[in-house]
Amino acid sequence: MVDVLYVEDNANDADIFNRLMRKLNRPISFTILTTGSEAVEYLTGQGRYENQPTALPKLLLLDLNLTGLSGVEVMEHIRSNERTRFIPIVAFSTSDSPTDIRSAYEAGVNAYVVKPGSYPATGLLLSRLYDFWLQDNTRTHYR
């Protein structure tokens, strides 16, 4: 089972996430996808993931400004699908725009986090996200 699915189209941000998650020294598995459409296919078992058993993540960390399907559109797909509608979603974006934040909550995000500007601050934030969403949070047993 994948603990965290991170959807990020910026290669530098994905690399930073990868390095910081490995430094957490916690038993965590993660997958990084680069497009919103691939995320929808992965989570719904369609397209390139059809006939492949894909376990749902315990947390979806989702950038909003994705190429193709935006993060908001990804959330709308996820929330409208019976299999995926209860996956905890955290928007992880550089945008602190009230319009973007409101759109994310209207689409069904569980939390909205603005990416910190430094490597150490991002590491601390990822550690806190892990502690809450993967350790402290009680999830429903979705399919």
TrEMBL record:
SMART domains: REC. Gene3D superfamilies: 3.40.50.2300. InterPro entries: CheY-like_superfamily, Sig_transdc_resp-reg_receiver, TCS_response_regulator. GO terms for biological process: phosphorelay signal transduction system. PROSITE patterns: RESPONSE_REGULATORY. Keywords: Phosphoprotein. The modification 4-aspartylphosphate is found at D63. Residues 3-130 form the Response regulatory domain. This is Response regulator. It comes from Spirosoma taeanense.
